[in-house]
Design a protein that fits this description.
Elements lengths: L9 E2 L2 E2 L3 H7 L11 H10 L7 H20 L6 E5 L3 H4 L30 H4 L7 E6 L8 H21 L4 E3 L3 H10 L3 E8 L8 H9 L2 E5 L17 H6 L1 H4 L10 H13 L2 E3 L5 H14 L4 E2 L3 E2 L8 E2 L1 H9 L3 E5 L12 H8 L9 H17 L1 H4 L12 H4 L4 E4 L29 H5 L7 H10 L5 H20 L4
Parallel strand pairs: 3-4, 4-6, 5-6, 6-7, 7-8, 9-12, 10-11, 12-13
Antiparallel strand pairs: 1-2
Helix pairs in contact: 3-7, 7-20, 8-11, 11-12
Length: about 500
């Protein structure tokens, strides 16, 4: 299923179908993030006396109308982090507060080993060339049961972000619709924040719940997180500790670890409210049930940070068959960027042979992310005909617009209970740094914080890695989100 661009002019939730609509909507734009201070002054002046300034208002309306149409027609091609956790300290108090500024003269001493530390400093988010758009993943406590407490915890995190953005509105903006994202990308230089929720436990029990979060501007919800819940079963990583964490799930037989009836309803409720369901963290059985349901109902599947099972042969990995199903269904995949998380685990012989032939491969570094990214990209390229259900289609004859359907996003998961990519050279790395050689910071420091994302992309570009599928993921994400909004109530 191909999801094409919507023909719309949409700004902060205001659907504008004509210039006449703009004339009546202009007053609602006064507090919009897209307008600068001078434009807001003009708007206040314009709306003071309609009779005295009719011609000015008409001129300004026409200008804004054309501006919005231009923004909506442009394809977005930005680095976009599909999930990051700057409000983790609200759910788990031992984390330091995210989105705070440090003194540039005394930066925090951070390394890639930061599992229980805050690295989401506002300094690293501001004007970040490695990620223009950040999707914040709000979380509750894993074992929470009280529905009101769960909701309140998410709302507290939203309030925290909103207060930060209000205080730094010259640098940051929250986008609650695809149209707002497009306008902010094309008309401002602000860092853009989108809302998501990781873990639907105790949050999605009715259609009303889904609509509540849609009204808050939530783009997607990762339905399952680290524990089996009333919605379905969670993927369990290898190791006794992970089995103990999700003991209930570990003791269940595979046939009893599928999507529950409430989970099925939740996916439908979310879709009909205009919210995407992220299938990351689902057990194999739950994911299979979810993909069956989504195929039946025409709901595009999105996976924001699962692995590629032929290389990471664990429940968090998605099989080749399911990768095809995701893309055939109009969805897309995004890979975790952490080299530590992406280490190969019992890979297929084909990929083990490829790994063995890698020159200067440092396991757990940026090399590991690059290897899986290029493997998934190659797999998609080899299966273009299947994905598009057209045997004549190949990468060579796809249009640039069609290539967007083969996007592969990335997810950093900073403050997400994990370490990130180790260095390639020097302390903590695999190789000694050569005297006089010039290295990217990502090679010497590893991925210690979000400010090093740009260095990762620079290093990959130097290695002749095609980054277009990564940057195309921002446009693909918006198209899928637009599709959900357009179809809401119709799934």
């Amino acid at each position: 299923m191909r999801i094409k661009r919507r023909s719309e002019c949409c700004q902060t939730g205001i659907e504008v179908k004509s210039l006449n609509d703009m004339l009546f909507s202009i007053g609602d734009l006064k507090n919009n993030d897209i307008l600068n201070t001078e434009e807001k002054k003009i708007l206040r002046l314009t709306t003071t006396s309609a009779s005295a300034f009719t011609s000015i208002r008409l001129s300004l309306s026409l200008s804004l109308f054309l501006l919005m149409q231009t923004a909506q027609s442009q394809t977005i091609h930005e680095f976009m982090d599909l999930q990051i956790h700057p409000t983790m300290h609200i759910a788990h108090r031992h984390f330091g507060a995210g989105l705070t500024y440090f003194d540039e003269n005394t930066p925090p001493a951070l390394t890639y080993k930061h599992r229980f530390k805050n690295v989401n400093y506002a300094n690293y988010w501001e004007d970040n060339k490695g990620s223009r758009i950040f999707v914040i993943g709000f979380l509750t406590k894993e074992r929470i049961r009280n529905r009101q407490k769960a909701r309140d915890m998410i709302l507290e995190q939203m309030k925290y972000v909103e207060e930060f953005v209000q205080k730094h509105s010259d640098k940051f903006a929250i986008a609650r619709s695809p149209g707002e994202v497009r306008n902010l990308v094309t008309q401002t230089k602000k860092t853009i924040i989108i809302y998501s929720i990781e873990g639907g436990k105790a949050l999605i029990g009715s259609a009303e719940d889904a609509q509540f979060w849609a009204n808050k501007g939530v783009a997607f919800i990762t339905l399952i997180h680290l524990l089996d819940s009333e919605l379905g079963s969670s993927a369990i990583r290898p190791g006794i500790i992970n089995s103990i964490i999700n003991l209930k799930g570990a003791l269940r037989s595979k046939k009893n670890r599928g999507l529950t009836e409430l989970g099925r309803n939740a996916i439908l409720w979310l879709a009909n409210a205009g919210i995407m369901t992220d299938i990351t963290h689902m057990s194999d059985s739950t994911r299979a049930d979810a993909l069956d349901l989504m195929a039946e109902k025409g709901i595009p599947p999105v996976s924001t940070h699962a692995m590629f099972k032929p290389i990471q042969n664990i429940e968090l990995g998605i099989s080749e068959t399911d990768v095809i199903r995701i893309y055939q269904g109009g969805g897309f995949m995004s890979l975790p960027i952490s080299g530590v998380s992406m280490k190969p685990y019992r890979p297929d012989s084909k990929y083990q042979a490829l790994l063995d032939r890698q020159p200067e491969y440092c396991n757990g570094s940026v090399d590991t992310y690059r290897f899986t990214y290029e493997a998934l990209k190659s797999f998609l390229s080899e299966n273009v005909g299947r994905i598009f259900n057209d045997a004549t289609k190949t990468m060579d004859n796809l249009s640039e617009d069609e290539k967007i359907d083969l996007a592969i996003g990335f997810q950093s998961d900073f403050n997400g209970w994990l370490n990130h990519s180790r260095p390639r050279y020097g302390k903590g790395g695999c190789f000694e740094a050569a005297p006089g050689a010039v290295y990217e910071p990502i090679e010497l420091q590893g991925l210690a914080h979000p400010g090093l994302l740009e260095s990762q992309w620079k290093w990959m570009a130097k290695e002749d890695v095609d980054l277009d599928p990564i940057k195309n993921a921002s446009e693909k994400f918006l198209r899928v989100w637009e599709y959900f909004i357009e179809k809401k109530g119709g799934f």
